[in-house]
Design a protein that fits this description.
Length: 219
């Protein structure tokens, strides 16, 4: 499992923009806008027909951006996102078949979890970084604090309900490595092609993350 389990991600940002791109032409300007604002990672979700094209465009044109494929929920998604150039993948949940597929493809992977049993299952497979999804509905800050006591060797990327208002609270938890969310590049801002707005949102998120302190030492 060593090749597919994140221990220390290659990207620096503790904020992971979750994006749904319907226009593949938006992918490269989006990547530049995020980088300009200090964010070097993006999760492009497989929730649109343009997703694979968008991943490929960023992977080829903006290699300094760490492009992850999100919403990887089926075994057959793994080879598709790898071929498109994704450097890692995330899923809202996880199956053992998906774990087998990312292992066979040597694709770094952040599995989605929502319960202690799921955390233990993925930890037994070697994972130490997991996506808590949907974070707010799973219990948010309180859930992460509760998981941290008995399962202290697992780090999380909470996603779902994270916002500038609660980002620092999440990032200050000792078992939160990073947090994901759609507020950095929401649909209306993308549709308008307002790249300056995305850079501003990224800058604000980076400033909040900076104030919250560095990532947990044990990641
Ligand atoms: C999603 O499923 O779109 C992500 O979890 C983002 O959730 P958010 O819109 O609450 O940030």
């Amino acid at each position: 499992m060593a090749t597919t389990c994140f221990t220390r991600p290659a990207f620096r940002s503790r904020v992971v923009p979750v994006v749904v791109l319907h226009n593949p032409a938006h992918a490269v300007p989006l990547a530049h806008a995020l980088l300009e604002g200090g964010i070097d990672v993006v999760e492009i979700t497989l929730r649109s027909d343009a997703a694979l094209q968008a991943i490929e465009a960023v992977a080829q044109a903006v290699p300094q951006m760490h492009t992850g494929a999100g919403t990887v929920t089926r075994v057959e998604d793994v080879q598709r996102v790898l071929d498109a150039g994704a450097r890692f993948a995330l899923s809202p949940g996880c199956t053992d078949a998906l774990v087998d597929a990312v292992e066979a493809a040597a694709l770094p992977f952040i599995p989605g979890v929502m319960t202690p049993s799921e955390v233990m299952h993925r930890r037994a497979q070697g994972f130490r970084l997991m996506k808590l999804f949907p974070a707010a509905q799973a219990g948010g800050l309180g859930m992460l604090q509760a998981l941290g006591a008995p399962l202290a060797d697992v780090q999380f990327c909470p996603t779902g309900g994270v916002s500038p208002e609660n980002l620092q609270d999440y990032l200050r938890l000792p078992n939160v490595a990073m947090a994901g969310g759609s507020w950095l590049a929401p649909a209306d801002v993308l549709a308008a092609g307002d790249w300056n707005a995305i850079t501003q949102r990224a800058r604000q998120a980076c400033a909040l993350a900076e104030q919250a302190g560095g990532p947990p030492a044990r990641l």
